[in-house]
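Practice problem. Given the sequence and the SMILES for pyridoxal-5'-phosphate, write out the predicted structure.
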Amino acid sequence: MALRWPRRTRKRIHMFRSKLPDVGTTIFTVMSRRARELGALNLGQGFPDYPIDSRLTELVTEAMAQGFNQYAPMEGVLELRQQIARKLSASYELTVNSETEITVTLGATEAIYDTIQAVIGPGEEAIAFDPAYDSYEPAVRLAGGRCIRLPLIPPGFRYDWDAVKAAINPRTRLVLFNSPHNPACTAASVEDLNALADVIRGHDIYVMSDEVYEHVTYDGRAHASVLKHPELAEKAFVVFSFGKTMHATGIRVGYCIAPPELTRELRKVHQFNTFSIAHAPQVAIARYLAEKPDAWRALPAFFQAKRDRVRTALAKSGFTLPPAQGTYFQLLDFSAFAPPDDVAFAERLLTEAGVATIPLSPFYAAPPALPVLRLCIAKQDSTLDAAVQRLNEFAARL
Ligand SMILES: Cc1ncc(COP(=O)(O)O)c(C=O)c1O
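Answer key:
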């Protein structure tokens, strides 16, 4: 039976003053839902459609059966934090203190949110680079702050460091950095990190570095982590995701690396946000990392093969494929076929070609005219092959 609210309450609910009035359901959710409804192939939302390592499934099941079903420690299971420290030593030759510098969070999303709440206060500002991952600005606004959105410059989505310098003022507290970059598919260079360090030097400004695609870099490129930049690392909250590195976006385990003073502040938010995250997956991931400490080393080749498969199959389609240096994605430039209205073209691909993609304009505060869509390549080869066949056939009809 439907719940009936008294008339006065109904009116009050109706008048609710939203803190995020312009935020609706994200484009990712909308596209996935419509792809399901229309039976389209989903190259939209960034999640793999192939199974995870069955050993990880066994370890999660085993951990639950062994009783790891009550609250985990607030900062994360120690065994997992120790494995994370080991992994950081293996991948970046870094020594990170598992007691004071690592916090396990509910995916990278929680680490990003906690960082922003820990740093930004009412009236303060964070700088983000457009196109920007969609969770950044709402988190800044919920903290009472303002997100200053600076566009990356075409071609190649380059940083305009003079614009960053000009945007900095006494209210600026945080730079929201992301590399490898979703959705630009670029990877920051050491020069970019040096430039970032230059512009914030001498200011009370911190960095949230979203590095969830740390292991999805192509063509032999080493990921330039902010953690490897001693000056930036002192001021940075660096965010990672086991969802991405274990092909298991639903496992919702991420972590944040920050110096002890910043970690203390991050944990104050984490403690009253999620308190701690699911216990069994943490135990399972720790055991998986102990058993297979090198599994992540296979990721660049695994994803590069998928990127190349898509690029090769679309080479003669008439679409242009901008360079992709990293991430789960490949951009698709449709300027040869239609005016630069990415939302309209994504709709056509969905309804006429049966392929769901993601337009780039939702990643912008003020979107320019964009002839570009984002394809997710983290899909099984058969899905990629079927989708590119549909894209080729559609292009031939245009
Ligand atoms: C750039 C970026 N940051 C953060 C996230 C969120 O990561 P998680 O699923 O671990 O919360 C994503 C997920 O797609 C992402 O692409």
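Check your answer against the key. The radius of gyration is 22 Å.
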